[in-house]
Amino acid sequence: MWKKISIRWQLIALLSLALILVQISSLSLDYLSDIEQRKTLAIEQAETLSFALQHDLVRAVIDSKADTFSDISFRVSGFESVVMLSVFANDTETFQYVREGFTPPEDLSLSAPTQPVFSDRYLHIREALSIDGYEFGQMFFLIDLTQYKTGLRKQLISKLLIFPVELAIALILAWWIGKNYTRPFLTLAQAMKQADVRQAIFPKVKTDAKNEIGVMYDGYNQLTSQIARTTSDLKYLGEHDSLTGLLNRYAIEEKIAASLKNVQQPTNVLLMLDVDQFKLINDAAGHAAGDELLKQLGQMISANVPSDAFVGRISADDFMIILPGCKLLDGISRAESLIQAISDYRFTWKKEIFSVSVCIGIASFMPNEYTPQALTLAADTAVYAAKAKGHGQLSIYHAEDKNVQQYSTDVQTVATIKDALQEGEAHFELHAQAIVPLQKQTDLISYEILLRLKNAAGNMVYPDLFLPAANRYQMMVDIDSYVLWKYLETVTAHPEHIEKLAFVNINLGGSTLNNSDFQNRIRQAIERFDFPWSKLVLEVTETSAVGNLAQASDFICYCRELGIRVALDDFGTGMASFEYLKNLPLDVVKIDGSFVRDMLEDPVDLAMVSYAPVSYTH
């Protein structure tokens, strides 16, 4: 509660409390002083009375007469504070005076010490009754302290009457002090309230003070200036691509969301650019060259779009452009100009010259027509359709377009493949297709591993659907690694099955053998699994593999040293020749069925089949 009160009111409350405490302390000191004054008066009066009655009391002890006691009682009654007087001779009480109306306390002890003793409102004192050195007895006095008249009451009344005036003056003073001395703090607090950290807006505070207030204000201004600069830098870094200086994916998605909400612009166009064969340039000239190319492309794109357009780099070689208030035809014209400008551009790196082209997907949209994710997917789909046409092409998003539908299917398929690779709700199944020799009988078994995919709903996704998508999105290496590892995990758990195994063929994508990740996976498998590697055959298809096999010849030789064989499947369907095969490190060539099917009727097929087993099959 106290922390919620303003400093001004806290100061007023503290000053008022201090004044009250001072007043209470003053009254307490007056009261304590009054008590000490009463005690002093009581002791002095007891001594005076003792001296005044000394001879009379001695005479009363020696000659106990009623007249004497009556005279003493009369004289003592003149002292209102004395409420009781007793005289003792030989420990026998010979005389006692009790003021009329006074009842001695039940616990009153008449054997009080000779030193004054105070209890509650009374003074107890006992003194010797003696003359000229002779002691005749003891005198006991009980004096009521409250009977003394002091100035305490008047003081209390005066101070209580003056206190409201003092308090009012103190409150006025506190208000003035609070108003003037807390104003700098209120000014600073108000500036802090008005500050907008997200926008890096901080009001400045000014003062002529040269004391601590001036130091505090200067510190605040310096601190907020530094925060504003840092916030601006962080905001820029958070919204811009560090390589090209363009907006990053987060920022461009924010712009898309804002454009979809802006009803002031009825038509807008989203362009998505994908650099054709960027990976080839990156691999051939190096990553530094690739980075420089992206920078120059970013500058070229920015120079060829309107000033109100938003340009961003959303991935390695993909750019996105928002054209606010742009009609579809104008967007198409802008995209064609970009394609032409980039096509005319030549990228030079270390005396090498590269031609560059881009494909552009176009998605026209109105406010609230899409969600940001759906609009991005539409533009991405259009890019896919453009790339399907070739280099330097553009495509406009239409939901009914076949390429669009194919891309949408691929997106779902790729998501299913990723889920299966992570062993989520979707999963892969390994099936075995038997390989049976026709020339001889054997008890050993041989088979080829076939891969099947089931989605999260348990429905089969056939290879002719998911394998092309996996090839298009460079997922074959991950799939091949998964199949190899899963098979070895399964079969090594059953040694009796391995004993009956002649060989197993595992199919690989065309570029898998040449992939360093897969090669490392093979080496890990060799170290981990106890498997007779001479029974493993890695099989690739001729249509995509002959060039890759040549590049992977060193790794194939490494495999063959361990006994692992390499087979070329569907020989004859691609561009390979027998002469080309002479230099490849192959163990098995599987002739395509199109030759075997007609070899009894077609002499050319018969000649090729007859020749191949002699030279190249094992």
Instruction: Report mean pLDDT, rounded to a whole number.
Output: 84
Characterize the biggest β-sheet. Answer: 7 strands, mixed
Taken as a percent bin, the fraction of beta residues is: 15-25%
The strand count comes to 19
| Helix fraction by DSSP (H/I, runs of at least 4) | 40-55%
**Low-pLDDT stretches:** 613-618
Helix run count: 20
Span of the ends, CA to CA? 92 Å
Inertia-based shape: elongated
Radius of gyration from CA coordinates: 55 Å
Structural class: alpha/beta
Structural features, described:
The protein has 618 residues and is α/β, with parallel strands linked by helices. It contains 20 helices and 19 strands. Strands 13, 14, 15, 16, 17, 18 and 19 form a 7-stranded mixed beta sheet that branches. It has a 5-stranded antiparallel beta sheet with strand order 2-1-5-4-3, covered by helices on one side. Strand 4 (122-131) and strand 5 form a beta hairpin. Helix 7 (278-285) packs across helix 8 (287-303). The longest helix has 56 residues, at 7-62. The radius of gyration is 55 Å and the shape is elongated. It starts with 6 loop residues before the first helix and ends with a helix. The model is unreliable at 613-618 (pLDDT under 50).
